[in-house]
Amino acid sequence: ATPTAIMVGTGRGAEIGVLFRKGEALQLLKDARVVALDKTGTLTEGRPVLTDLEIVAGLARNQVLAQIAAVESHSEHPIARALVASAEEAGIALPEMTAFESVTGMGVRAKVAGVRVAVGAERFMAQLGLAVDGFADTAARLGDEGKSPLYAAIDGRLAAIMAVADPIKPSTPAAIAALHRLGLKVAMITGDNARTAQAIARQLGIDEVVAEVLPAGKVAAVRRLKATHGQLAFVGDGINDAPALAEADVGLAIGTGTEVAMESAEVVLMSGNLQGVPNAIALSKATLGNIH
Ligand code: ADP
Ligand code: MG
């Protein structure tokens, strides 16, 4: 491509809120075959809310919620904010908490008023030696509704199953349809549970799902998708997405996301809107499509 074409394309990008940090990205995007998307904060708002809370018989709901929220009050995960907010809304005071520990991609644990409390994914409970079989039907139903099931263990026993739901951004369905019209495959890579991810993918017409990946697994997922489909663009917003953004042929960061993601990406979508992705690819095809 000529330097002039790249300059024109980059300038046009800036006008529509697509910031090319490297001219090379504009050239590569026209040959993209697959777009891999992070789920939380990229496809969704990244602001989950607590929708369900089912307590084991014999335990008091408000006390369990207080213990859960106390642990989560030290976590910065969006899920943590959802759980703390619902305790606050219920007017529940948080008990004192010590020995907080966050286990990446798993959950959190601490001692609440001297009692061990753990909150997180099924795999976190498994790691703690707790089977969640008793809640299998509930978890399946919640997952099929596109909600993310979570568990709480108190004093070494399973105490509750809950679910958070994270609304899909209003702009997401049209952006995915536009990517399909451009002839691209659309994939989702997420740390969330498989059933939930499948339900959301079905709803959005996403072609391929890689779920239950630990943060370190996102890079491996990107490599696998690249090997299967060819030239790959990855879109993400979080600190966890930085390695995948770097690994992709073109990394696109959501402009309302974290600083780290934007620094690892070649393209920043200023609107915080997924529509920037098909816009960027269409722009690349329009400005550089026939020049070699
Ligand atoms: P994502 O947020 O994209 O799902 P993460 O790697 O941050 O990916 O988290 C993976 C999973 O670990 C979450 O879906 C959740 O089940 C669990 N988890 C992580 N942090 C927390 C937390 N603070 N509280 C409860 N569960 C958590
Ligand atoms: Mg995210």
UniProtKB/TrEMBL annotation:
<protein>
    <submittedName>
        <fullName>Heavy metal translocating P-type ATPase</fullName>
    </submittedName>
</protein>
<comment type="similarity">
    <text>Belongs to the cation transport ATPase (P-type) (TC 3.A.3) family. Type IB subfamily.</text>
</comment>
